[in-house]
Design a protein that fits this description.
108 residues; 3 helices; mainly alpha; 2 domains
Length: 108
Amino acid sequence: MPDNDNKTPPVVLDEHRGMASQKETDARRNRSEVEADQAALQRGRAELEKFLFAAPAADWPDAAQKALYLLRLFDATPDARDPRLKHLIDDATADLNRLVGGIADPDA
């Protein structure tokens, strides 16, 4: 039976690879983490959309949540990089939040 007091530490294979191989391994690990995060975000977005668009808004805060969500979606598009549109999005978001009494962010 082997003596447990003389255990050697495990070999860390990354230390024995070349730099290019380590970078490729790190890139694969990062890519799979990013893909998993993106899939989780997509599932969360689908759930939120199912909730937001399941029925007509019952009141102004519900309508504002829907409008704020759509503004955030548009804000993430290349078209929204236009400084005039960016300013309008920011103003409309602030107006909606102010008009409904500072409702909570539906994405939070």
